[in-house]
Each structure stands twice: as structure tokens, then as C-alpha cells.
Amino acid sequence: MKDAFLKACQGIRPSYTPVWFMRQAGRYMPEYQKIRQKYDFLTMCKTPEIAAEVTLQPVKILNVDAAILFSDILIPLEAMGLKIDFIDKGPEVSPVIRTGFDLKNLKEFDLSAVDFVFETIKILIKELDVPLIGFSASPFTLATYVIEGGSSKDFVNTKRFIFSEPQNFHRLMETLTEATTKYLIEQINAGVHAVQIFDTWAGILSPFDYGIFCKPYLEKILKQISMSVPLIYYCSNTSGLLNQIKDLEFDVFSLDWRVDIKDACFYLNYRPIQGNLDPLVLLGREDEILKRVKNVLIDGNSAKSHIFNLGHGVNINTNVDVLKKVVDFIHEFRFEEV
Ligand code: CP3
Q1: Domain spans in the chain, listed from the N-terminal domain onward
Q2: Residue 191: which region, alpha, beta or left (left: phi > 0; alpha: psi -120 to 50)?
Q3: Ligand 1 pocket, 152 CB below 6 A?
């Protein structure tokens, strides 16, 4: 198995910088669209053969150094008694949980209801020649979907819940943390080589409230996962939270593009970094793209080790050939020549 990605997770520098992309399987890719025309998104996630095939597509087509399980961060919610749906304008979750009274609608996490995830992992580890990344949302990011009922711009309901019923919000976080921990441990048992926790919405909190309502639950997960696979933490809008994030014992920190990798390295004590090209740079002119890819590689070189990625998921308008060129450029890049 190609080991550049796992080496970099462990703080060892491989001979080239490993690269994969968040949301590397998706609608920007014609091969994905072809399958997606036949099945809705949830059916694809729940059918292990299809989920495995779609996971493999970017590995074969782009030549990336890691695969990420094809699924969604909202999948575990169905195993907690909520209904999830993916419509054109984004995900929908119901019934919403906005008060302590609503908490009764959240059931104990039933691992057997997401057995298709572990089946997909078992198929993939037999077929892949690169490591497989499992994932979950952070309990806080998952909470925003449960409270808002989907995506949100201002997170009014989430903040109203936090600041009017803090104790009940903590109860919601306890339940989601327990479920997330079980879910990640079972993915590791099924064979994933690394896991990434997506904290897409932690950046809506002030550093003070991140310390109260988000961080303790990540610490709890870290304490309970004793298996030795690398744990990656992706946080969007990281820059204002670095002073909090630095205390977390993740192996790799995945950054968004709004933060300078060199500044982040200082806060994070030069631990392994993943990231952080602005995904929309990929919609630009080729020479501008490669210039910025090179900048990220050079900045990433100040960390103990670096895994190239985007600062968020691949945008639907991205051209597959551009991504292929970026992967080749990264694989061929040598620091001695700079
Ligand atoms: O990265 C991968 O290739 C693995 C699969 C993956 C998906 N979602 C597939 C998906 C992963 C890791 C996710 C994580 C996810 N899902 C996050 C965290 C990362 C981030 O992007 O911030 C979030 C917030 C979600 C919730 C979600 N799922 C939204 C907001 C949407 C709608 C917007 C969109 O881009 O379509 C989804 C749908 C979704 N998840 C699709 C895919 C491939 C599109 C489904 C389709 O084909 O219609």
C-alpha cells in the first residue's frame, strides 16, 4: 500500500508531499454523475457496492494518496431516530431539536442501523492501494444540523439554544459525543487507516464559547479512542480559534485557506498540517493555480510534515483535468529545486 499519507500523519516526511481532496468524490466528476443519475444520494451511501465504487473513482482518476469513505456527516442521525433528506438546496433534518423538551426525540445511537458504512469499509480495504480515511462530524457541527434542520447562514436557533438553555445544550452534546465516539470506533474496527473529524461550523463560536461548548467534547472523543490510527481535525474559520485548538491532541490539523500555514504552525507547535488551498482558486487560470499550489507547498514545508488538501471541499464547478494537473504537480515538486 502507498504509505506517503500515513507517514505524513505520523510526522514523517515522505519523498513527496501526499495529496487528497475533501469532497473528492462528487458531482464535479462525470463518472460520479453517471451513477448519480440512476440513484439518489442516500441510496448511494446505503448501498455498499455503490458507495465503494464512488470512493474509488477519485483514487483511480486523480491518483490521490488517500481515499475517503463515500458517505455524509449526517448519516448517523438516522440511527438516532431522526429523518434526513438531501434535496436540491441542501440537507434537511427532522424533527428539529431546539429545546430541552425536544431532546426526547433523539434516541440512543443504534450502530446496527449504519451497518452499510462498515460493510463499505470492508469492501474498500480489500480493493484499495492507498489508505482509507473514515470520518464523522464533530459533535458541535452535527448539533448545528440537528438544531437548524439543515444548513444555515446565521445559526440563530443554535445560538438561541446555547445561550438560553446551556445545560440542555450540553445534554444534546453529550448524546452526540457518545454516538460519534461509537461510530468512529466501529469504523476503525472495520479497517479505516485514519479518521477525520469535520468541524465545519465551529468557527461561528467565539474562542470563549468554543472552549465551553465544543472543545470539551472533542477532548472526550480523543480520550476514548485508544486505537492507534491517526486522527485528523478539520476546522473551518480556524484562525480565531488556534489558541484553543492547540491544546487538542489530534495528530494532524486540517486548515482552511483564511489562515497562513506559517502562523498556524507557530500556534500548533509545528505539528503535522493538512490543507489549505482556497478551493475556488481551482476555477482560475492554470498559471495562477500552480503558483498558489506551490505557495501552499512551501508554507506547508514549515510544519513537521504536510499533507496537501483544499481549505474546504472541491467545488462542483471544478474541472477534473485541473485537479489531475495539480496532483501531478504536487507529486513532482521537490523542495531542493526551489
Ligand atoms: O469527501 C468525500 O468525497 C467523502 C464524502 C463526503 C460527503 N459529504 C459527500 C456528499 C463527506 C466527507 C461529506 C462531509 C460533509 N457533509 C460536511 C463536512 C465537510 C464540509 O463540506 O463542510 C458537511 C457540512 C456535509 C453536509 C452536506 N452534505 C451538505 C451541506 C450537502 C449539500 C451541499 C452539496 O455540496 O451538495 C451535502 C450533500 C453531499 N455530501 C453530496 C456529496 C457527494 C452531494 C450529494 C449529491 O450528489 O447530490
Answers
A1: 4-337
A2: left
A3: no
Q: Tell which atom from ligand 1 comes closest to the C-alpha of 25.
A: 3
Distance 167 CA to ligand 1 centre (A): 30
Q: Is the peptide bond before 95 cis (omega within 30 degrees of 0)?
A: yes
Q: What is the pLDDT of residues 62-83, one digit of tens each?
A: 999 999 999 999 999 999 999 9
pLDDT in tens, 19-31: 999 999 999 999 9
Ligand 1 neighbourhood includes 201 CB (under 6 angstroms): no
Q: Per-residue pLDDT averaged across 215-234, rounded?
A: 95
90 C-beta closer than 6 A to ligand 1 = yes
Average pLDDT score over residue span 187-211: 98
- For 4-337, give the CATH class: alpha beta
- Spatial separation of the C-alpha atoms in residues 212 and 191, rounded to whole Å: 33
> Cα separations (Å) of 19 from 219, 292, 331, 336?
27, 15, 8, 19
Would you say the C-alpha torsion 76, 77, 78, 79 has a positive or negative sign? positive
